């Protein structure tokens, strides 16, 4: 009971920081006072009053009635903000509306907890409150104070699991006792590519001059062997660390299909219901590492991400040495600047933006497919768990792109039989674009050499790559790539 009351006090103490964070940003983004602000001020004033009351009086009849009234006010404000979030396109939603929604997510969680005595807190309540915070983070804004609130509730949730909820503990034990990786039954179909060039931890100068500048794909080995994620990341680890967290899941075979959709669900539900072949569910292109900062401790942003084609590099600088300040940003400093979430007018803003790295996670069952598409940024794709097959082809290949918003996505399915491909996409097969100057590495294993043997026919412009744990693939901008998971798979992409 004492621990629960202490946790309740910690939640109340976070309210001031979260309120100030969002109000400062709202004032920066909006010149006029918004109508919902007066409601937020009333809610904030009530929380301030609670913190001045004695802990025993908070659950008196009068106080509980007031809590219920505030909870109704919070819900009404959330309903109004939800309408604004879903009016028009997402990119046109005012930024201050997202800050309001994030703040209201915290208030809904807090009033839900305060409406009950700590002795009545249970796992279902904790999970519901965690989801309220996650909705505020995913649809609004994340910040260190919201992260602390989630970590506090996750601590309570895990403590409850460890104190007598045997059905959940047995589920965790079952996940831990079996292999996390399920292999796909998929057999190679369609066309194949020539084996990609491979290198073991090339120097920064070699990577820049031979690949980054000329935009040539390459598979890199031994660059992330120091990552704790390679030893820690499996399904049991994610379930224990973040099983009750809410995450966005893509539902559908491919995002180009008409029945494709996205849903928010707990990570536990995703693991329980969709971590099997043919489920067609994918946690794709999501910055899970910002939503769950503990995961960032398990990886390191590769130094290659801070290179630029025109930089002058000390040829003696080894991979992993980030001391060349003219080339590489101070990673710890960059993280510190970004961590508070505030809007800064930094005199080095252009340099910071130029070196910004977007991190995304790709987590799914065997058989997930990302169709041929290209990205506007340089991409380092690191495989952490399981394996994937990637096909690549140059920007000038005949790829039959969709029109409109999906013009960076191809209608070509390379896994179709060659006769179907030739009939439906003749230029893709018969008139390949320029190759990507892929030079097969002499160090390729016999198995990898055998895997590059063409099935039916190998168009000269296709490159093929199999990624296993610890492998990193460099994908240049505008290079088309098709990805299939060959097993349960976790990857992290770095766009720069």
Automatic annotation (TrEMBL):
<dbReference type="GO" id="GO:0046872">
    <property type="term" value="F:metal ion binding"/>
</dbReference>
<keyword id="KW-0479">Metal-binding</keyword>
<feature type="compositionally biased region" description="Polar residues">
    <location>
        <begin position="439"/>
        <end position="459"/>
    </location>
</feature>
<keyword id="KW-0560">Oxidoreductase</keyword>
<keyword id="KW-0539">Nucleus</keyword>
<feature type="region of interest" description="Disordered">
    <location>
        <begin position="316"/>
        <end position="341"/>
    </location>
</feature>
<dbReference type="Pfam" id="PF13621">
    <property type="entry name" value="Cupin_8"/>
</dbReference>
<protein>
    <submittedName>
        <fullName>Lysine-specific demethylase 8-like</fullName>
    </submittedName>
</protein>
<feature type="compositionally biased region" description="Polar residues">
    <location>
        <begin position="321"/>
        <end position="332"/>
    </location>
</feature>
<dbReference type="GO" id="GO:0005634">
    <property type="term" value="C:nucleus"/>
</dbReference>
<dbReference type="GO" id="GO:0051864">
    <property type="term" value="F:histone H3K36 demethylase activity"/>
</dbReference>
<dbReference type="InterPro" id="IPR041667">
    <property type="entry name" value="Cupin_8"/>
</dbReference>
<keyword id="KW-0408">Iron</keyword>
<dbReference type="InterPro" id="IPR003347">
    <property type="entry name" value="JmjC_dom"/>
</dbReference>
<feature type="region of interest" description="Disordered">
    <location>
        <begin position="433"/>
        <end position="461"/>
    </location>
</feature>
<feature type="domain" description="JmjC">
    <location>
        <begin position="281"/>
        <end position="496"/>
    </location>
</feature>
């Amino acid at each position: 009971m004492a621990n629960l009351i202490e946790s309740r006090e910690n939640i109340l103490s976070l309210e001031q920081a979260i309120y100030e964070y969002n109000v400062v940003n709202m004032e920066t983004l909006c010149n006029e006072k918004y109508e919902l602000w007066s409601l937020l001020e009333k809610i904030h004033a009530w929380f301030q009053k609670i913190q001045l009351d004695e802990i025993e009086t908070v659950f008196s009849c009068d106080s509980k009635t007031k809590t219920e009234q505030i909870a109704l006010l919070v819900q009404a404000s959330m309903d109004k903000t939800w309408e604004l979030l879903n009016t028009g396109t997402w990119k046109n939603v005012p930024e201050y509306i997202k800050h309001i929604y994030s703040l209201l997510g915290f208030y809904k969680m807090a009033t839900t907890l305060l409406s009950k005595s700590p002795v009545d807190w249970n796992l279902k309540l904790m999970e519901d409150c965690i989801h309220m915070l996650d909705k505020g983070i995913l649809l609004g804004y994340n910040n260190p104070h919201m992260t602390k609130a989630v970590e506090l509730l996750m601590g309570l949730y895990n403590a409850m699991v460890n104190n007598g909820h045997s059905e959940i503990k047995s589920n965790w034990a079952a996940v831990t006792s079996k292999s996390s990786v399920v292999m796909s039954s998929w057999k190679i179909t369609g066309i194949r590519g020539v084996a990609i060039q491979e290198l073991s931890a090339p120097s920064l100068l070699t990577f820049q001059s031979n690949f980054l500048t000329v935009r040539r794909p390459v598979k890199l080995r031994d660059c992330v062997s120091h990552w704790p994620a390679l030893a820690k990341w499996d399904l049991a680890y994610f379930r224990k660390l973040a099983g009750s967290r809410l995450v966005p899941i893509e539902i559908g075979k491919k995002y180009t299909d008409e029945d494709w959709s996205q849903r928010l669900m707990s990570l536990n539900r995703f693991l329980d219901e969709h971590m099997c072949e043919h489920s067609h569910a994918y946690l794709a292109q999501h910055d899970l590492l910002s939503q769950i900062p503990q995961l960032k401790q398990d990886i390191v942003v590769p130094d290659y991400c801070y290179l630029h084609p025109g930089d002058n590099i000390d040829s003696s600088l080894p991979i992993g040495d980030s001391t060349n300040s003219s080339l590489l940003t101070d990673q710890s400093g960059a993280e510190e600047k970004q961590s508070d979430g505030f809007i800064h007018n930094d005199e080095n803003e252009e340099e910071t933006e130029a070196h910004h790295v977007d991190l995304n996670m790709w987590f799914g069952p065997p058989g997930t497919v990302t169709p041929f598409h290209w990205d506007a940024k340089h991409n380092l794709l690191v495989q952490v768990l399981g394996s994937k097959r990637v096909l690549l082809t140059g920007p000038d290949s005949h790829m039959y792109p969709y029109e409109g918003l999906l013009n960076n996505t191809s209608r070509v399915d390379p896994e179709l039989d060659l006769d179907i491909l030739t009939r439906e996409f003749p230029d893709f097969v018969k008139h390949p674009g320029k190759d990507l100057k892929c030079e097969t590495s002499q160090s390729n294993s016999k198995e990898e050499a055998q895997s590059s043997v063409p099935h039916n026919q190998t168009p000269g412009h296709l490159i093929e790559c199999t990624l296993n744990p610890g492998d990193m693939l460099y994908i240049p901008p505008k290079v088309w790539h098709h990805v299939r998971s060959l097993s349960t798979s976790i990857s992290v992409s770095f766009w720069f």
